[in-house]
Description:
single chain; 69% helix; globular
Amino acid sequence: MDEIDGIGGGALAYLGDTVIEITVREKLVKTGRRDVGELNRMSRDYVTAKNQSKALEKILPALDEEETAIYKRGRNAHGVSIPKSASANEYRRATGMEALFGWLYLKGRNERIREIFEIGFGEE
Length: 124
């Protein structure tokens, strides 16, 4: 086990939140839109716990055993405050997804980040 594997689910989710945010911003900027207000509004479709929980439905079947374990570590993290904008289940699922993205980032698996992101949030 390396030091990355010992990081708690909450800390991985903290980092993963930023990884998802950067991935969303990159995707939106590449659309060619230039209005920052519009880009900010569009990013909300990706970063809410409710929408992340929905994306997770598509992502879960694509995860391998190790990735699933990391997701569960984040989902089951203690000490998280649930916002009023999402149910406890949605928020925990989103936290698990964020933990997965944080772990993938620390492992240097950037291509896998993009792949999983597209599975969950790609065009239908």
